[in-house]
Amino acid sequence: MEEELLEQIFASYEGDRKELVPILQEVQENLGYLPEEVMQDIARFVGVPESHVYSVASFYAQFRTLPLGKKRVAVCRGTACHIRGAPQILHEIEESIHLKEGETSEDLEYTLETVACIGCCALAPCIKVNKDVTGDMTPEKTKKLFNGNENGNGGKRAG
Amino acid sequence: MATEENVPDKRHTVHVCQGTGCVSGGSEHIFSALKEDLENSGHAEDILVKRTGCHGFCQQGPVAVIEPEGIFYTKVKIEDVPSLSHSLVSGSKPLQRLLYHDPLSDTPIVHYHDIPFYGKQERTILKHCGGIDPEDIDDYRNVGGYKALQKAISDMAPEEIIAEVKKSGLRGLGGAGFPAGRKWESCRNTGGDVKYVICNADEGDPGAFQDRSVMEGNPHLVIEGMIIAAYATGASKGFIYVRAEYPLAVSRLKIALEQSRQEGFLGEDILQSDFSFDIEIFQGAGAFVCGESTALVRSIEGKRGMPKVMPRPRTTEEGVWNKPTLLNNVKTFANIPLIIVNGSEWFTNRGTEKSKGTAVFSLTGKVMNCGLIEVPMGATLRKIIYDIGGGIPGGKALKAVQTGGPSGGCLPADMIDIPVDFDSLTQAGSIMGSGGLVVMDEDTCMVDIARYFLDFNQRESCGQCIPCRLGTRQMYEILDDITKGRGRAGDIDLLMQLSGSIKRSSVCGLGKTAPNPVLTTIRYFRDEYEAHIAGKKCPAGICNMVSL
Predict the structure, then answer these.
(1) Hey, what CATH topology would domain A71-158 get?
(2) Chain B: closest CA distance from residue A77 (Å)
(3) Is a pLDDT exceeding 90 seen at residue B104?
């Protein structure tokens, strides 16, 4: 399946080294992360050493070499969020879903990360779950959001 | 059906903000629900529902404005849609509960322009942000869009355009403030048949969202500015380097580029001239250092985004694939169509002697009115924080203002009467930066803020030069110790010493400015450092001082 997907993606590129970053982005968009063998295929396609692909993939914060959870929780650590309580929100989420920053749960349900700035500073502090931004977070709101989610997921898993 | 002549009077437009902030509050659903409601009741003809970009007052979002009256509704919820459409259809009085309440007088304010947050601003770049549909090129053209390009191509020689930009005194709004006209001239004068124009939209400063809002609210303005720049410098290919973290801006830019191509403003033989130019979007992959020009260029080339070591040729001489490249910020390009249409004199009417035009800021932090604002260069911080921002919430005292993000500094409350322009801020130890302005009150700990920024800078160091890679890490660890009650006598001197070495010996601007947040907090808030180190106390009560 991965091979088919790669073929499809490669079809819209010329195989030039300058296309490396967009290709990595598109592959990650589809697979959620960049598996090692996929990076090797990309290296062959754009005609650069495998080490170059890895050096680029490891340089940019966007790229991941490990699979992600279904729910990507990103806590904004922008300046406005920081002074309006983002550290407490992060702490609250860590407690609720039992993960530390940068970790993914074993069942691949959650990934917890921090991001430099979501750009919703007027609604600080804010978090992003997959593509949805929630602003004006408080510890209480966080508790409600994540404890609720946990129960919901527990139900899904049981079913 | 209404008769022909009373149609314009009866027709209302509801502008529903679809900026990232309001979207997070559900404004997309409000937009569709309202549209559907009015269609179902047969009023879709005389009441238009329009999608717009950021209105700026993000804190009050989701925001909706009823034109032509300018009735301003705040914090609109999906449940409000039925009563909102009923009031529109019946022509009854504005819905009281959705009006903005002035926090000082606690009275409702009906109209947009009567709200101090808007009334005290001077919007030129942001003029149509929130008023036009960013996904509709006709809407942009209806407010004069692409007239500047037509004027430039049919009436002006490239040299005349550069002369006009030089005369305007426009300085690069990405933070460094280099005169735009001189940069353009240098790019034009460099020979070569292939040249590039790049829009730097890698807005990585935490606490800043002005570039995102301009791209989301009026993408054609930026594109038009880039096309004029390409015509003036002789470039044939352009890139918009935008953060991948801004998906809405990316999608609006894509739509705008496609529309611009269809109308013949991009592509071959633009407006029947022999000038050809096209723009591609490049999504940055999340490295703060890529805001630096040479790092950005390397990133487009598919490499690690590490700045080139000095001495090096200017990007205008050797940029992408070693070709001459003009690189400007989003807001710099957004100013170009305005300067071309209105003339450089119009532009120089605003601002100070050495900083002309306006400044766009993301006003955030401990301030009553958070959002996107535009003021003439030289406006004081007091005007921004108190007149527009409405002061500090909760009766707290102002402590500091942070400008310039991780490369900038914190200015103390007694300095808020300095004018905000490139030179005054630099003199005070901070920088203009790209436009983040974070207000801090008495509950903010300045040592914690310094630690916070050094944490950011050491994470974002690209790692190629030792002063930045290891120096910022050392500074972070010292600051972390201080905020945990483990500070030692002599730490302040050590921080100053490290700052000096890092500033002198780092390869790029990120390293050279990385110590600024520490230097300004030591300069203006030394007593707080001393309280942490000697007294093992955090005066603001933020730091968790572990007792030894």
Answers:
(1) Glutaredoxin (3.40.30)
(2) 8
(3) no
Q: Strand B398-403 vs strand B436-441: parallel, antiparallel, or unpaired? A: antiparallel
In chain B, positions 453-492, which contact chain A (CB-CB < 8 Å)? 453, 456, 460, 462
pLDDT tens for B32-60 read 999 999 999 999 888 999 999 999 998 89
Half-sphere exposure of B512 (CA within 13 A, CB side): 11
Question: Which residues 401-460 in chain B show a CB within 8 A of chain A?
Answer: 402, 405, 436, 438, 440, 444, 449, 452-453, 456, 460
Interface residue B541 vs chain A (CB under 8 A): no
Q: Report the distance separating Cα B337 and Cα B60, nearest Å.
A: 30
Look at residue A23 and tell me whether its pLDDT is greater than 60: yes
For residue A11, pLDDT over 70 is answered with: yes
CB B496 within 8 A of CB B502: no
Nearest to B305 by CA among B89, B510, B90, B10: B510
Q: Are A55 and A96 in contact (CB under 8 A)?
A: no
Q: pLDDT digit string (tens) for B146-189? A: 999 999 999 999 999 999 999 999 999 988 899 999 999 999 99
More confident residue, B208 or B345: B345
B108, B130, B102: which is closest to B387 by C-alpha? Answer: B102
* CB-based contact B354:B427 (threshold 8 Å): no
Which architecture, in CATH terms, is B137-348?
3-Layer(aba) Sandwich (3.40)
Helix axes A86-97, A139-158, angle to 10 degrees: 20
Q: If phi over 0 gives left and psi between -120 and 50 gives alpha, with beta otherwise, what is residue B98?
A: alpha
CA-to-CA distance for B464 and A101, rounded, in angstroms? 26
Contacts of A79 in chain B (CB under 8 A): 206-207, 364-365, 402, 405, 436, 438, 452-453
Nearest to B521 by CA among B468, B469, B456, B445: B445
Other beta carbons less than 10 A from residue A158's beta carbon: 6
Q: For residue B234, give the nearest of B321, B148, B162 by alpha carbon.
A: B162
3-state secondary structure of B490: coil
Pick the CATH number of A2-59 from 2.40.50.360, 3.20.20.80, 1.10.10.1590, 3.40.50.1000: 1.10.10.1590
Between B370, B402, B449, which is nearest A122 by CB? B370
Q: How far is the C-alpha of B307 from the C-alpha of B289, rounded, in Å? A: 8
* Choices 3.40.30.10, 2.60.40.60, 1.20.1440.230, 2.40.50.100: CATH for B446-533: 1.20.1440.230
Q: Which amino acid is at B412?
A: P
List pLDDT tens digits, range B360-397.
999 999 999 999 999 999 999 999 999 999 999 999 99
pLDDT band at A158 (very low <50, low <70, confident <90, very high): very low
Tell me if A118 and B245 make a contact (CB, 8 A cut-off): yes
Are the CB atoms for B280 and B320 separated by under 8 Å?
A: no
Q: Judge whether A75 and A86 are in contact, CB under 8 Å.
A: yes
Tell me what pLDDT residue B383 has.
96
Residue with tokens 């000038």: B275
Q: What does CATH list as the number for B359-441?
A: 3.10.20.600
Average the pLDDT over B184-202 and give the result. 95
- What pairs with residue B375 in β-bridges? B359
User: What CATH fold (topology level) applies to the domain B9-119?
Assistant: Glutaredoxin (3.40.30)
Residues 6+ apart with CB under 8 A from B325: B187, B195, B196, B197, B198, B297, B315, B316, B318, B319
Contact B22, B62 (CB under 8 A): yes
- Domain limits, chain A: 2-59, 71-158
**Which DSSP symbol is given to B69?**
T
Show me where the domains of chain B are located: 9-119, 137-348, 359-441, 446-533
